[in-house]
Amino acid sequence: MPAAALRIRPATVADVPAIRAFIRGLAEYERLLERCVVTEDDLREHCFGPQPRCEVLIADVDGTAAGFALFFHGFSTFDGRPTLWLEDLFVVPERRGRGVGSALIARVAATAVARRCSRFEWSVLDWNAPAIGFYRGLGARLLDEWTICRLEGDPLRALAARAT
Prior knowledge:
Blueprint: E1 6-10, H1 16-29, H2 40-48, E2 55-61, E3 64-76, E4 81-91, H3 100-114, E5 120-122, H4 129-137, H5 153-161
Parallel strand pairs: 4-5
Antiparallel strand pairs: 1-2, 2-3, 3-4
């Protein structure tokens, strides 16, 4: 795709409807649409409110939003440096295979390097062979020795209730 046709830019609050649509598109692709309850108000508050919890990049192709990357900082105690976590990367199906996803993830990687992050990480569903191939093609290493742990819903509230 010609460089002039593709532009990666920081999202603005005006992009909230598109961001929500991308998130729903990703949830549908990942077969998790029933779990996707994000609202535009959630995105306005947590992406653009007084204490933003994440950052979003938008990929515009010929002036139309074609994909997004949502990421946030963590911290490595072992390295003593910040890390960057890519929560979501999504490109609309009709724009896939044209370098949009590569451009988005490269921009997030450049952000990690510019901010002196010790690493840039994300997760991928084990059945998503196209994404796994894409990530390996970028040079990513899949970490078999780590398992993601998650608390949500009632178990999260039950544990929180034990706090003193």
